[in-house]
Amino acid sequence: MSNNEMVSPLTFARIGACLRLPQQLSKFPHMRFREEKEVSVRPEVEEYFSSTRSAPLLVAERGLCPQDSKKEVVRIGVLFSGGPSPGGHNVVLGLSEAMTRLSTRNKLFGFQEGFWGLLHGDYVELSHEFLRNWTNSGGFHLLSTSRTKLVGQQAFEQAMEVCQSLDLNGLVVIGGDDSNTNAGLLAEFFQKQNFKTSVIGVPKTIDGDLKGHSIEISFGHDTASKVISELVGNVCMDALSCKKNYHFIRLMGRHASHLTLETALQVQPTYTLISEQIRRDGVSLDKLISSLAKLIKTRAQAGKNYGVILVPEGLIEQVPGIDSLMCVLNDLLARDPHHTLDTIHQSLDPASATILGSLPRTIQEQLLYDRDSHGNVAVSRIETERLLLSLVKQTLEKKASEVPFSALTHFFGYECRCAHPSHFDAHYCYALGMCAAALVLEERNGYMALITDLEKSVSSWQVKGVPLSSMFHKERRRGQWSPVIRKTLVNLGGPAFLRLKEMEERWAVKDCFLSPGPCQFNGNSLTDPHDIPKTLYLEKNACGS
Known about the structure:
Blueprint: H1 9-15, H2 23-26, E1 31-39, E2 55-62, E3 75-80, H3 88-102, E4 107-111, H4 115-120, E5 123-126, H5 128-132, H6 153-165, E6 170-175, H7 177-192, E7 198-203, H8 221-242, E8 246-251, H9 258-267, E9 271-272, H10 275-281, H11 285-301, E10 307-312, H12 322-335, H13 341-347, H14 350-357, H15 361-369, H16 384-398, E11 407-412, H17 423-441, E12 447-452, E13 462-467, E14 472-477, E15 480-485, H18 495-509, H19 534-542
């Protein structure tokens, strides 16, 4: 890194750590992709992908990279998009490694602040020697990131002009579902224009909701769950030590509860709420509060006036009644952004007004005044953990309960986004970067870099590419139908959730807390199959892998 003051002893040690590769990539450039079965595009989105809808699944095999015989200088651009996720710097390093192995004349360009840098031609050239100093480091500050999106024909044309000015063979987009939606649409646009730049996606998100479509896990989720589990485990030990507080802990993950589920499996808290289950079962807010109050009373009868309750970030918008209330509020505020609490209450239908009035005033104000960039309720800013605590306390007091109840609230999420990547994520990201480069070098446009068989040793991981177009669905966005890559929600019939339900009653009445401790960097933890996320481990064993 350019500033020695930013290099801690751990960062310095991790820079020098050895990175291993899947067998196919270790031989690069003596590797090529074999075309397998064509991956179908959903009929509902065929009209959007007339140029990239017919593409095969790609599987790496031994051979010679086609670009190796051309002896041309290869030029690739790369950008981070969306929230940071541990391991991003290793993706860029992997890109550079593959390009350098082919020729030291090849050039890598990094766009500053994501798609904003692409649209404005704001980039830096990245040398392999420079990137080595970023090995295994956390954060996205190598290039910075943003949530800028490509919207409209002009933006796509602008992106093409910048890529043309740099004579790029490829553009690698490191991002989540929204970012890769942009990547897939940009790839289609380039293909229609017969433009040479190949667009490749890399699956990133701590939330773990970019999976399926052959993607076993998005990078960063393992590190995030380990960091969060350490923090939650520490809180569990505090609860067990002092025996006087309940801890309501909200965890990141607005749409999907993967991070909450993985943390629960690692820590074994008193109780875990899963947004997808709340929606499926139609659990009302009253019923949810009653069940939590009942849990607290049951534990009190056993002399346990403490516990740890995990709350996914997006829980509140999955609760029946509140979800419809939020839609009504969005519509009312879109028409008149100057509404106050009083005028809102007067404008609501009786059912919605009753629900809003039942909430603490602070939550009412957050629903009304905290808006995102689209003018909708900013769910991530709603302190759901405080809402639950307040309503549980009211319920216990209304019943003249003598149950002692003292509680604290926490929110964990930002603490994990820029952590040093775990052993798993460090190797995984390095392999993803090399895979992305290999796809560009074969002039494969509109693909997601893919590494599978992740439960095995690194050398046995499989290197693949899956067409981005095959991942699209049709959804209504901003009042019109659009092709999008959907977030993957927790599978309520999957082995990870079923394990949680199997242990739920036991964890609720007994103290089964685990304290995983900090993410470990010494030793050779990748030889331990349990070092991968527990969710992935359970999924792999359930399907007999």
